[in-house]
Amino acid sequence: METREILEKVKSGEIPVAQAERYFRRKPFDDIGFAKLDTHRKIRTGFGEVVFCSGKSDEHLRQIFERMAQEEGNVLGTRASRKQFDLIRELCPDAEYDETAHLVKVIRRPAAKQGCIAVCTAGTADIPVAEEAAQTAEFFGSRVNRVYDVGVSGLHRLLASLDPIQEANCVIAVAGMEGALPSVLGGLVSNPVIAVPTSIGYGTSFHGVSALLTMLNSCANGIAVVNIDNGYGAGYLATQINRLAMRKEPEQK
User: Fold this and answer.
1) Residue 31 pairs with which residues in a beta bridge?
2) How far apart are alpha carbons 127 and 12 in whole angstroms?
């Protein structure tokens, strides 16, 4: 249960104070031997711990997902293979897998979608990273508009899609090759742009280094840059910005 849920149940008399007190006295992590699961992360940051699946042994991954699903209800796993998903589904039959974004999701307490984030790609080859960003943001409760294949080689496509981009509280710009899309968007929107370089491109793109350097050297203002192919990091940061914007809206009224 979440902190607010426990407090509401104490208030309504559904659970006794002593039971709630035991919950809050628990250690802020769950030591399962090979890992220490940060069970209080959502209390501190508003975001539950996320599982990076790549490189984990089958048994470790199974135990982590099973324990986190019991504790949190919702679990997000990034960089997961189909084989890893099949292992997780044996313990969590309600688990879902996205082949494009390589994400595993267990969602037992759906979050209401709020605010708006625009996720844009330069090309269709950038969509896997963009989907990791978009679905991360949706998992954490953000509403997402996808605007794909609007790279600088055809600016008329981007200009035709400006309305949903300019309305967003935050824009994620995903691009490989030379990585120019975030600079263009930075001059067209009033809210922050998160640039995500991808490893898409020919030889001198250096597996995304060229796009990364372009984004870091952008002359446009209001652009932050995450690591190469780090869609998850962009989706997380965009959700933080989106939540801040949602908090300020009632004050503006």
Assistant:
1) 36
2) 46
Q: What angle do CA 165, 167, 170 make, to 5 degrees?
A: 70
Distance between terminal CA atoms of the chain? Answer: 33
Long-range contacts of 80-88 (CB under 8 A, 24+ apart): 80/53, 80/54, 80/104, 81/53, 81/54, 84/53, 84/56, 84/58, 87/58, 87/61, 87/62, 88/61, 88/62
User: Which of these, 119, 117, 187, 181, lies nearest to 154 by C-alpha position?
Assistant: 181
- 58, 86 contact by CB (below 8 A): no
The CA distance from 124 to 116, in Å, is 22
Q: Mind listing the pLDDT tens digit for each residue in 173-227?
A: 999 999 999 999 999 999 999 999 999 999 999 999 999 999 999 999 999 999 9
In DSSP notation, 69-84 reads HHHHS-EEEES--HHH
